[in-house]
Design a protein that fits this description.
Structural class: mainly alpha
Helix content: 55-70%
CATH topology: Amino acid/polyamine transporter I
CATH superfamily: Amino acid/polyamine transporter I
Strand content: under 5%
Shape: globular
Largest sheet: none
Distance between the termini: 42 Å
Length: 511
Amino acid sequence: MLFSRIKPLEAILATAENKSLRRTLGAFQLTMLGIGAVIGTGIFVLTSEAAQKAGPGMMISFMIAGFVCAVAALCYAELASMVPVAGSAYTYTYAVVGEVLAWMVGWALILEYAVGASAVAVGWSGYFVGLINHSSLGIHLPLWLSVGPNEGGVINIPAAVISALVTGLLILGTTESARVNAVLVSIKVLALTVFIALTLPVIHTVNFHPFIPNGWGTVGVVGAASSIFFAYVGFDAVSTAAEETINPQRNVPIGLIGSLLICTIFYLLVSAGAIGAIGAQPVRGLHGAILLPGSAQLAERCQAIVAGGAVRPLACSHEALAHVLRVIGDVGVGNLLGLAAFIALPSVVLMMIFGQTRIFFVMARDGLLPPVLASVHPRFKTPHVVTALTGVVVILMASFLPVGTLADYSNSGTLFAFAMVAVSVLVLRVRDPNRHRPFRTPMLWLVAPLAVFGCIGLYVKLPLVAILVLPVWGAVGLLIYVFYSRSRSYVGRGMVEVEPLEPSPIPGLKE
C-alpha cells in the first residue's frame, strides 16, 4: 500500500547523522537567517497589493496572516526539534504520513521556493526601476522593458537579469559569507526602522476611514491576508537548515518563533505608517468598480490618475515604501530605502533558489528524483544541474508575470505544505506519544487544527487561478510519482540507507 511507505524517524536521523552537513549555525544565526528570508518583497512591495484589496484594513490582514503562520510555526518547531535534518515539510511528512503525501508536499514546495523567488525578483525590479528613475543619471527605463504584459509592458528585464545573476552565483559557489548575510539583514531591518520612525509621527487618522472599504471577501481583508501571507513565507527556511544547526533541539524553535515574532511587529508598524502617512484606499474604476491588483485595468487607471496630476496612490506603486517617503517629503531617505531594497532583496532570491535545490537534494537522496538532479559540479562543488533548471524557471516567470500573481501562486503551495506539517504533528502525537520531544507545541489539539483550518481558509480566498494552480500542479506531480518515483523509491525498495550524495554548502556559511 502506498500510504504504508513511511520512512522511520530512526532511519531519517541515522541517514542525516551518517551523511550529515556540517553543523555551524547557532540560535542567533538561525534567527537572522529567518528574518533575512522573511523580510523581502512581501513588506517592501506587496503593501500596495494589500492596499488595493483591503485598504487600511490590511492591518487586520497582516494580523490574520501572521496568526496562521504563528500556529504553523509552533507545529514546525516540534517536528524540527525531533527531526533536525534537511528537507523541511517534505521530510516531516515522509516520517509521519507516508511517501505519497511527502512527494506531494515536496512538489508543492516548488511553488513556494521557485515561484517565490520569481516574485521577489519582480519586487526587486520595481525598486531598481524607481531608483534609476529618481536618480540624477537621467536614465528612464521604458515601461515595456520593466513590467510584464499584464501591467502594460512586454518583459521585465531587471527581474530576469537579477534571477540569472543569482542562479549563476549559486552554480559558481560564490555565496555570501555569514557576515555579509547578517549585514544585509541589518540593512533591511534598519530601512524598515527608519520608515517607521519617519511615518508614524505624520499619521493622519482620516486616512484610516473607511477602514474596510472592500469588505471581508476575496477582494477584501481576508483576500489581502491570503496574498500578503507571502510576506511571512521564509521562516520555514530555518527548519530547512536544521541539519546544519548546532543543538537543533533548542536553536531551531528559537529561530522559527523568534524570526516570525520580530517580523510581525515590524509589519504592523510599517503598515500603520504607510496608511496613516498617505492613505491606502483602493483605486476604483470610473464607475466605482473594484479593480484587481496586477490587472491591466488597474495599470491603465493608475496611469490616468498620475497623468491627471494627482499623487500616485499607494496601490499603484511598484516600490510602496520608498514611494510613501517621497510623498511625505523625505525624497532622499526614500531613495535610500529604495537603495536598501535594491541591495538586500537579491539575498532573498538567493535563499529561495537555494531552498529549492535543498529540497530536491533530499528528494533525490530518497530516490524519488533522478540522481542527476543532485549531481555536484566537479569544480564548483555545487548542484549545478538542478540550480540551472530552477534558475531557468525563475527567470521565465519573473520576466512575464506580476508580483501579486506570483505571490498568490507561491502561497497556494506553501499553504498546503504548512497544513500537512500541522497534520503530521497530530498524527505523530497519536502514533508515538512517548517519543522524546525537545520542543512540544503548546495546546496542540487547538493549535494544529487552527493551523490546518487557517491554511484552508486563506487558500480558498486566493484568486481563482491561484486556487487552481495547486491541484493542476499536484496532478502533474502525481503522474511523475506514479510513472517514475514510485518504482525508484529507496523506501519502496526496502533500502533505508542509501549512498550519500555530496551536498553543496549552504549560502551564508563558510566551511
